[in-house]
């Protein structure tokens, strides 16, 4: 196989791995969040607000006094869920951009944890200010609770990413043996 074809195969593998890892890690997060809801009566994430914010972004409106008070938009819940899983795939892709496919051959928690921790900056400094919650949720009545929820969710996602990596390692790496797995 020539170098160009090999590069395309590895690019496809990285994208496919990011999709599989991201979807599995996000599903793990959702399962844990639902269990916390059932056991501890923890409120579930309201993905319609994320979808609403994204829809308003397409209209050129980034900042809101309160995304909850903004006029609801058609398709916001579906878009919120799609965005939730898309973000999980992007976070998995971010990790693989630094680790390469070699991480799947021997998954470790540290790269997943670093990505989970680093990506807390997205809700803290982009989403929350745009949704009217202030930087890191400081404009809410309970900023520490909101910050803790983000940190816990990203930690759970990190564990899910690691577990997904272990699953993919068991299912797929044997099929890649003897083939070049590039960074």
Task: Describe the structure concisely for a colleague.
The protein has 183 residues and is an all-alpha fold. It is built from 7 helices and no strands.
Could you explain the architecture of this structure?
The chain has helices at residues 3-40, 47-58, 76-99, 102-105, 109-118, 121-131, 143-176. It has one domain (3-173). It is globular. The relative contact order is 0.17. With 183 residues, it is mostly helical. The chain is built from 7 helices and no strands.
Q: Percent helix among the residues?
A: over 70%
Task: Give the percentage of residues in beta strands.
Answer: under 5%
Tell me, briefly, the overall form: globular
Number of strands: 0
Mean pLDDT: 92
Distance between the termini: 17 Å
Main sheet overview: none
Strand and helix layout:
Elements: H1 3-40, H2 47-58, H3 76-99, H4 102-105, H5 109-118, H6 121-131, H7 143-176
Helix pairs in contact: 1-3, 1-7, 2-3, 3-5, 5-7
Entry keywords:
single chain; 73% helix; mainly alpha
């Amino acid at each position: 196989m020539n170098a160009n074809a090999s590069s395309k195969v590895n690019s496809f593998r990285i994208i496919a791995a990011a999709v599989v890892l991201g979807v599995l890690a996000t599903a793990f997060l959702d399962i844990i969040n639902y269990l916390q809801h059932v056991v501890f009566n923890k409120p579930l994430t309201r993905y319609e607000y994320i979808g609403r914010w994204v829809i308003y972004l397409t209209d050129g409106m980034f900042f809101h006094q309160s995304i909850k008070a903004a006029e609801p938009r058609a398709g916001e819940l579906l878009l919120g869920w799609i965005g939730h899983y898309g973000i999980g795939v992007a976070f998995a892709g971010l990790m693989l951009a630094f680790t390469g496919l070699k991480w799947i051959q021997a998954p470790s928690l540290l790269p997943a944890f670093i990505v989970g921790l680093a990506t807390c900056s997205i809700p803290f400094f982009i989403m929350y200010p745009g949704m009217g919650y202030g930087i890191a949720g400081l404009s809410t009545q309970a900023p520490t609770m909101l910050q803790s929820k983000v940190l816990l969710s990203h930690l759970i996602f990190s564990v899910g990413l690691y577990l997904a990596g272990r699953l993919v390692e068991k299912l797929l790496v044997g099929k890649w043996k003897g083939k070049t797995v590039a960074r």
